[in-house]
Fold:
Amino acid sequence: MAKVCLVLGAGAGIGGNVGKKFAREGYHVALCRRSDEEGLNKIVAEIEAEGGSASGHLVNAVKEGAIEDLIEAVEAGIGPIDVVLYNLGSQIGGRSLEDTTLKVFELGWQMATMGLFRVAKTLFPRMVERGSGTLLVTSATASVRGNAGQHSHAGSMGGRRMLCQTLNAEFASKGIHVAHILIDGAVDAPDTLGKMMGADAFQKLREARGLEHDGLMLPEKMAETYFHVSQQHRSAWTHELDLRAFSDLAWWNHAA
Ligand SMILES: NC(=O)c1ccc[n+]([C@@H]2O[C@H](COP(=O)([O-])OP(=O)(O)OC[C@H]3O[C@@H](n4cnc5c(N)ncnc54)[C@H](OP(=O)(O)O)[C@@H]3O)[C@@H](O)[C@H]2O)c1
Structure:
């Protein structure tokens, strides 16, 4: 039976490309995204066209019970989940305190922190019983640096990083590997950054910095790192790492 990788937040950027990488390496990949059924089916079809195995699950992960139900359905219908990628972001663009409603702030926390907690609550007891498991968590610069307009994003992503550290403290010795992967720059991700910027502005950014310039992070290249981390020997685990394009300054070198 193939090993199973569950991707929560499988768009055409990091989520879909990590899914494709795991499928190429022989995993069955269960891909979950919220709203774009056509996009979901496209990634599944691309994996199958390469000879891989994948299933698509259109689920709003922040709905009460949705993560728990999805994990149960994948484990019962496909097999035990060996690797899970938690890839939901909480970026809503810059918003002043006045423009950040309580509802928006709460949704950011649901996406960044609570959903991740629910994955651990549901899956970790099963992984502990099996003696192994890997949780890869995509994160952002906001997990280590607050900034103007980032009340919701930085508040919630900081919590994400601390939750990863806390999960590691309790579960690493039980065979579960949690990796917090800080993405310190813009990704060539049409379903998230592309939608937030708008198609024209995103295309201009790609032409100015992306494509052959390699100044936008390429998700298919990032996926190599995700897979590598998931396969590390337990005598040499990475718990935190960061990725950025060669032409970007690291977050600690920015003046603001
Ligand atoms: N893109 C960047 O420039 C950038 C920079 C720094 C960090 N990151 C981090 O990278 C991760 C996202 O990766 P990506 O930008 O490459 O995006 P992606 O993998 O292309 O897509 C992420 C997908 O998550 C899905 N999603 C959002 N909310 C969901 C929900 N409630 N339930 C289920 N699925 C949901 C969306 O599905 P639908 O489209 O179907 O709604 C979206 O397509 C986030 O953790 C973010 O913090 C991204």
Notes: The pocket of NAP is lined by residues 9, 11-16, 32-36, 59-62, 87-89, 91, 138, 140, 183, 186-187, 189, 191-193, 219 (CB under 6 Å). The mean pLDDT is 97. The chain has one domain: 4-189+220-231. The domain at 4-189+220-231 is CATH 3.40.50.720 (Rossmann fold).
